[in-house]
Design a protein that fits this description.
single chain, alpha/beta, seven-stranded mixed β-sheet, about 35% helix, disordered N terminus
Length: about 400
């Protein structure tokens, strides 16, 4: 084929990708508009009712407890939204919701909680960044590798792990690639792998020889258009709690399943979206955390036991925030089920939900510190697992019933 023909083919492909991307967002928006109803309880926040001594946070924790989430409301953040009681106020301009903070069984704690959307709502800044820009933020959610990257200038300490495993994955079409069973199988080919350019795990996959540098493409923007335009011949990153449902049930003209492997299973054992505080505030917040962290643990258990109300809430919030990432109730329901099915939310080796294995964190330090050094991205000298996480506030009796 001559250069002109190749150029014409490229232009046709580019137009197809643009068209698919537009069609994708339009259809999801229509699905969301047709299937979602408001589940929030009101337009004005009420003062929190008095709390019993066992769950009282009044005078112990900030009021409100402000939480910077890493993304728009989704089922992956179900534990946080489980803490939100009735009588909430939605601030659509700032993409946040505030209401009474309630413990297990809806018990009042005497303070409020404010949950702030992340991602596009904060210009795609990390929670660590926003916590240092806004001192009123009490808690954030930061993955282990990102906390290491921030350890020198914006150090945070994790106090609870909502996820035992990261839901990050690489996926492929099992019909087009029936011989692939692992990410390592992809690396034995020249197949293109789409990913977000800033993903540190990709440096690990390349450095360990699992994938080849010549086959990865950091231009992934979250849209399925390139994957669809390829006919499923390429691989791409995604969330095991979202894309399998999306590609099977929602994607226009596709409706085909995907196969995948978790990045965790390749030997990259981060704790994703761990609940963190600023390192310089941990001692000050210790009395609060001693009571609040067990509530977070219990909220994760309660959410997975009965995810329906929170799923409706996060879909409703997403619809009201209008951040450009449509989210359906079907996606939320799939995510909750997948979190449990794959062990993404689960107990540690000691049957406790939310605690940290410090040896596992040391393994992450050993992997990513050389990566950041290669990027000329300085981290705290002599970084230790204890600088990044603590089990001090964990209630060891709280766990999922298997």
């Amino acid at each position: 084929m001559n250069a002109g023909a190749r150029g014409a083919g490229t232009r046709r492909r580019d137009r197809l990708i643009v068209w698919l991307r537009r069609l994708w967002w339009i259809v999801l928006a229509l699905v969301l508009a047709a299937g979602c109803s408001s589940t929030t309880s009101g337009d004005t926040a009420t003062h929190p009712p008095a709390a019993s001594a066992a769950v009282n946070l009044n005078g112990v924790c900030p009021d409100p407890v402000v939480v910077q989430t890493p993304w728009v409301p989704q089922a992956e953040h179900g534990a946080l939204y489980q803490l939100l009681g009735s009588g909430s106020k939605i601030d659509t301009a700032h993409k946040r919701v505030t209401g009474p903070l309630v413990a297990h069984g809806g018990k009042p704690t005497g303070v409020r909680i404010e949950l702030r959307a992340g991602g596009p709502a904060v210009g795609f800044q990390s929670a660590a960044q926003t916590m240092y820009l806004d001192p009123s933020i009490t808690l954030g959610e930061v993955a282990t590798d990102d906390a290491i990257a921030a350890s020198l200038r914006q150090p945070v300490g994790a106090v609870m792990a909502p996820f035992e495993l990261a839901p990050y994955m690489l996926m492929w079409d099992p019909v087009v690639h029936p011989d692939w069973h692992t990410i390592a199988d992809i690396g034995q080919t020249n197949t293109k792998v789409l990913y977000y350019k800033s993903a540190t795990y990709m440096d690990y996959l390349l450095g360990s020889g699992i994938l080849r540098r010549g086959q990865v493409d950091g231009s992934f923007d979250g849209s399925p258009a390139a994957y669809v335009a390829s006919g499923g011949t390429i691989a791409q990153q995604g969330f095991a709690t979202n894309e399998p449902y999306l590609f099977t049930h929602l994607l226009p003209g596709w409706h085909r399943p995907v196969a995948f492997q978790l990045i965790h299973d390749t030997g990259y054992p981060i704790y994703p979206e761990a609940v963190v505080v600023r390192a310089d505030k941990q001692q000050q917040l210790a009395p609060c955390l001693k009571r609040l962290v067990p509530m977070l643990q219990r909220a994760q258990v309660d959410y997975l036991a009965h995810p329906g109300p929170v799923n409706k809430l996060v879909v409703d919030l997403n619809n009201k925030y209008k951040v450009g990432f449509p989210y359906t109730l079907g996606q939320a329901e799939f995510s909750a089920a997948q979190q449990r099915k794959l062990g993404i939310v689960g107990n540690g080796p000691d049957r406790t939900l939310g605690n940290f294995d410090l040896a596992r964190i040391q393994r992450v330090i050993d992997i990513v510190v050389p990566i950041f050094a290669g990027r000329r991205q300085p981290v705290k000298p002599g970084l230790r697992p204890e600088d990044l996480a603590t089990n001090q506030f964990i209630d060891p009796s709280v766990g999922l019933t298997l």
